[in-house]
Amino acid sequence: MSRKKTVKAKGSSKSPKASPSSASGRTGKGLSAAAAASSGLVYPSRPSISNSGEFYDISFKVMLVGDSGVGKTCLLVRFKDGAFLAGSFISTVGIDFRNKVMSIDAVKVKLQIWDTAGQERFRSVTHAYYRDAHALLLLYDVTNKASFDNIRAWLTEIHEYAQQDVVVMLLGNKADSTHNRVVKREEGEKLAKEFGVPFMETSAKSGLNVELAFTAVAKELKHRTMKEPDEPKFQLQEYVDKEMRTVGCCSS
Ligand SMILES: Nc1nc2c(ncn2[C@@H]2O[C@H](COP(=O)(O)OP(=O)(O)OP(=O)(O)O)[C@@H](O)[C@H]2O)c(=O)[nH]1
Ligand SMILES: [Mg+2]
Q1: pLDDT at 178 over 90
Q2: Contacts of range 195-200, beta carbons closer than 8 Å, 24 or more positions apart
Q3: Residue 73 CB–ligand 1 contact under 6 Å
Q4: Per the record, what are the reactions this protein catalyses (predicted)?
Q5: Over 70: is that where the pLDDT of 43 sits?
Q6: What residues are neighbours of ligand 2 (ion), with CB under 5 Å?
Q7: Pairing of strands 58-66, 135-141
Q8: Of 31 and 100, which is predicted with more confidence?
Q9: Contact 102, 218 (CB under 8 A)
């Protein structure tokens, strides 16, 4: 099943809250006519403008999924606002989204990031949104074994409801909680290998790898959309491993 890209009318990047809508893919620069034609994108006369007033060239929809309490909302807030939501845990009701425009290889990439409720009772709501997602960040909590054991069930759900070519990345969150850790990093790596998905550990609290997780996904999506025919395929896990080595693995 191939992914469809809907090109929205200028200025139509407003709240898609009313219904799960397709993320748009459009580009202003860096995309050859051939690549644009083959990816189904069209050249706008100018880049689009997001509802926060930022210009962007292409837009993708990313979903955060995983058990309740693994840190999806905190990860998004850390990425968007650079802050950590400490204090009492307020579980997400239904689904919400935030936009962030990133500069990827001189292209403005807008990520529309959907924060889903992990609680079972909201599952049918989130299922409806899977089919339009270009990427899924699947989280477990390294201090919660059940959240790790449930990853297989989440992956089954993803295969059932999401597009076949959706980008999936497994994240072991709360890596800062060294004393309470019950899932080893190696266990996360092994599971990710088994399912052929990239993996890294993150911490919404310390900021560890948060920017890197979203950047890696944005790079993969941008490459898929704008790749020149003779350009080598972007290797997401290789990129992540290289970046982690460069910054000494565990800095934010
Ligand atoms: N130590 C630590 N705590 C975290 C981290 N991320 C989130 N938390 C805490 O974990 C709890 C749950 O975080 P949320 O982000 O609300 O969890 P969620 O996955 O959005 O949960 P639902 O909305 O119910 O699906 C909160 O008390 C956070 O403060 C982290 O990286 N490290
Ligand atoms: Mg939440």
Answers
A1: yes
A2: 195/155, 195/168, 195/170, 197/138, 197/155, 197/168, 197/169, 197/170, 198/169, 198/170, 198/236, 198/237, 198/240, 199/169, 199/170, 199/171, 199/172, 199/237, 200/169, 200/171, 200/172, 200/240, 200/244
A3: yes
A4: GTP + H2O = GDP + phosphate + H(+)
A5: no
A6: 72-73, 92
A7: parallel
A8: 100
A9: yes
- ipTM confidence: 0.99
Q: What proportions of the chain, in percent to the nearest 5, are helix, strand and coil?
A: 35, 20, 45
Which amino acid is it at 235? Q
Confidence of residue 213 (pLDDT cuts 50, 70, 90): very high
The preferred substitution site among 68, 78, 89 for testing ligand 1, maximizing ligand atoms within 8 Å of CB, is: 89
CA distances from 101 to 27, 50, 89 (A): 13, 8, 28
Is the C-beta atom of 252 inside 6 A of ligand 1?
Answer: no
The pLDDT score that the predictor gives to residue 99 is 95
- Ligand 1 centroid, distance to 86 Cα (angstroms): 8
Query: Ligand nearest 178 Cα, by number?
Result: 1
| C-beta of 91 in contact with ligand 1 (< 6 A) | yes
Over 80: is that where the pLDDT of 39 sits? no
Q: What is the pLDDT of residue 247?
A: 67
**Nearest C-alpha to atom 32 of ligand 1 is from which residue?**
174
pLDDT of residue 19: 39
pTM of the model: 0.83
| Domains in the chain: ranges and CATH | 58-248 (3.40.50.300)
